[in-house]
């Protein structure tokens, strides 16, 4: 998969991230706003390190 994490500010001035596939689709997003750019980047790093081997669970 070719995807890019996009870091941006929302209308409330909070930092957010989204993971966009090369075809333009958003495949994941932060789901919450961060008060600082550093915290949003920390969230991206957390997803990259913790979800690489995530299981699929049907609920």
Question: Any idea of the CATH topology of the domain at 1-35?
Answer: Double Stranded RNA Binding Domain
Helix and strand sequence? EEEH
Strand content: 25-35%
Task: Specify the structural class.
Answer: alpha+beta
What is the averaged pLDDT score? Answer: 95
By CATH, the architecture of the domain at 1-35 is named 2-Layer Sandwich
Beta strand count: 3
Helix content: 10-25%
So how many helices? 1
> How large, in whole angstroms, is the Cα Rg?
12 Å
- Tell me the name of the CATH class of the domain at 1-35: Alpha Beta
Gross geometry: globular
Q: Could you describe the largest sheet, including whether it forms a barrel?
A: 3 strands, antiparallel
| Low-pLDDT sequence parts | none
Which strands sit side by side, in order, in the main sheet?
1-2-3
- Under CATH, the homologous superfamily of the domain at 1-35 reads YegP-like
Give the N-terminus to C-terminus distance in angstroms. 25 Å
Please explain how this structure is put together.
With 59 residues, this protein is an alpha+beta fold. The chain has a domain at 1-35: Double Stranded RNA Binding Domain (2-Layer Sandwich). It is built from one helix and three strands, in the order E-E-E-H. A three-stranded antiparallel sheet has the order 1-2-3, covered by helices on one side. A hairpin with a 5-residue loop joins strand 1 and strand 2 (15-21). The mean pLDDT is 95.
């Amino acid at each position: 998969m070719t995807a890019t994490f996009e870091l941006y500010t929302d209308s409330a001035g909070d930092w957010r991230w989204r993971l966009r596939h090369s075809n333009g689709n958003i495949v994941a997003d932060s789901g919450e706003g961060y008060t600082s750019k550093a915290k949003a980047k920390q969230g991206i790093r957390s997803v990259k390190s913790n979800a690489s081997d995530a299981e699929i669970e049907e609920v």
